[in-house]
Write a structure and sequence with these properties.
Length: about 280
């Protein structure tokens, strides 16, 4: 949480400055995708502290940090920087909005759309487990290596689309689906540490790899998981096999990314390239 004295100082000064290009005391530079679903890379002076949306952001000893903007992120974001000399500045910047498609999926078994009480208990338990798996927040910056497509194939589902399952509106789709045959190797898109590897009701074979500073990738519907919790994986290393497990209508990989509570669009990190290239 932002310290009370900083909130009071900002209110008194009426600070709301535009994004600055340099990274001097209290200043901030930001690059990346300032758009719903995007990930941005920040730089402040060493030993600075950073807050956004009322909570502290991990900053490396060299002043590097990341920010994520979820599917329905508001039009503006505010980042507060406290420099080593106690200088405090507030930076506000615009987050571009997006329009999302509607995706209809029919032919699912009714039990997968409207699970019973016993299954709901399993779903709640697995949801709690995955929350813990995505809570790791350490100093690693494996994400700095950049990202590659984890599998090649046709994009069959896009991030943010509103899903209608068997005619019933449901939660949006928070990943990118890549269709590929069962058994196709899934590669680690970036280095990271495995924090979850289990079979889940909705997502089937599920693997979570943390890339540092609470940025994680999730790989869903796997036929087989090739790595174990606690293992460090390198970019391009085989980590699983494409499957058709969980709630699916055909074999594919569902790749998702999270930063804290923000669900991100992996496709935005790929610079316009397609998973078949």
């Amino acid at each position: 949480m932002i310290p009370t004295w900083i909130k009071a100082a900002l209110a008194w000064c009426g600070l709301a400055v535009s994004l600055l290009a340099s990274a001097g005391a209290g200043d901030l530079s930001l690059t990346g995708n300032l758009i719903q679903g995007g990930l941005a890379f920040g730089q402040v002076s060493p030993d600075s502290k950073v807050w956004t949306n009322g909570h502290a952001v991990r900053v490396s000893p060299t002043g590097e940090f990341i920010l994520g903007f979820g599917r329905d992120y508001p039009p503006q974001a505010t980042v507060i920087v406290q420099a080593k000399d106690q200088t405090v500045r507030s930076h506000t910047f615009n987050i571009a909005g997006r329009e999302y498609d509607t995706q209809r999926i029919d032919g699912l078994p009714n039990a997968q759309v409207n699970p019973g009480p016993q299954t709901l208990r399993r779903i709640r338990r697995e949801s709690a487990e995955i929350t813990v798996a995505r809570s790791l927040d350490d100093d690693r910056m494996d994400f700095k290596s950049g990202f590659i497509w984890p599998v090649h194939g046709r994009i069959s589902g896009i991030y943010g689309s509103q899903r209608i399952l068997n005619g019933e509106p449901r939660q949006p789709h928070y990943g990118i689906d890549i269709a590929a045959p069962v058994g196709t190797q899934v590669l680690a898109p970036a280095p990271g540490r495995v924090t979850y590897a289990e079979d889940m009701y909705f997502s089937g074979g599920t693997l979570v790899v943390d890339h540092g500073q609470n940025l994680s990738s999730s790989f869903l519907h796997l036929h087989k998981i090739l790595v174990a919790v606690g293992e460090h994986v390198e970019q391009g290393q085989p980590i699983g096999l494409v499957g058709a497990t969980g709630r699916v209508t055909g074999p594919h990989l569902d790749w998702r990314m999270n930063w804290h509570q923000q669900r991100l669009d992996p496709g935005l990190l790929m610079d316009g390239t397609q998973p078949g290239n």
